[in-house]
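Attaching the record inline, Q. Sequence:
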Amino acid sequence: MSDVVKRDAGWYLTRFLLYALLTGFGFLMLFPFLYMLFTSFKLSTDVFHYPPRLLPYSPITVDYNGSQAPEYSFQIDGQERKLVPNGEKMRFGFFTSRELINADDPRSSEIVIRAQIEDEVDAKATGEKVIVNNAKGEPQSFDEYEVIINGEAMKLLLAYRGSLDVFVDPNDASFKYYAVLRTAQASEEVQFQVDNYSTVLGRNPAVPLSLDHSFVNTVVVTTGVVIGQLITSIFGGYAFSRVKFRGRDALFVAYLGSIMIPFVVLIIPMYRLMVAIGWQNRLVSLVVPWIFTAYGTFLMRQFFMGIPKELEEAALMDGVSRFGILWRIFVPLSTPAIATLTIFSFLYAWNSFLWPLLIIGEGNEANHVLTLSLIRLSNAFNDQPNLVLTGAAVAIIPPILIFVLAQRYFIEGVAASGMK
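Structure, as predicted:
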């Protein structure tokens, strides 16, 4: 009994470690997509935040003098206070002693106190110059000041001068605090900037570049290619699997052999053909040349050959036409293969870049597809990577949704193909 318990415990431990390992690798594979997706909801300033963070953060603003001002967090006397900058600056002197002064780099000296020097209330110049030698033995001159510290006057050296921003309590304007605005810790909260998608998709009139028109063009082209490939592949697959005619197998081998021809070999003939028939710079040139696919015909033929012939013979005896047999029997039984072909065709047409770049070109913006518009988007917003990744998300999310919706049929097609 103990051996069984030990064996079961070891089995569960092995399964747990295996799933943990697979989950870790899965997260590594998904992390670039997650980073792109979350960055598409960020502000441009949040993208450059260091250290990088995944969630989108936005600064918290409060009402101050009738407008919204960013809020900053400070630790003052052991308590956290929320302050806002009032737009003013104050000149300060940073003081140290003779022993702590760094003659080579006064700004790196250990500062004893900082004090306002404009009104000479907290620090008053004595008029004396103190000479301190640097590491090379060269004399350096520093002004001596009489600084009030805890009610007592001390003679210190002015290491350097600097300006600090003035922060006030929005609920108590009499309270003032001085710090460097650039290095102050801003108060932030997690907030998704959905307006990025409105900007990229042309809902912001202040932004001349948008992806709305190219998105519609991509949907039209992809739909045409997918429907065309499904129709030609289903009819071709049925003809090569069920219809007997002279030279059928030789024709099928020749048609299947076209897969071996590299696309770079076809570019020039196809381009010259599109120019000859007047389809250059038109969306039809992105659809018609790609509605025939040897791979799709081969996929449907192999699936149709697995359907029992008795079904077809019974339908023929009942007087059903060839088209009726194809539509009523073969197509419903071939849902996994059709879903697989739909996914492949959709991904190819949606992500096509080289052919649209050649036949449409960058100048014809009216007929751009997403892959071409993303280039213009990255050039126009190279200083705003959040908008660039928003455009990338617009281009990536639809294929992911298509795969998620059709994955059950896709997996059934793969499983069926593996059993035959």
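The CA atoms of residues 350 and 398 lie 9 Å apart. The chain has 13 helices and twelve strands.

More tomorrow.
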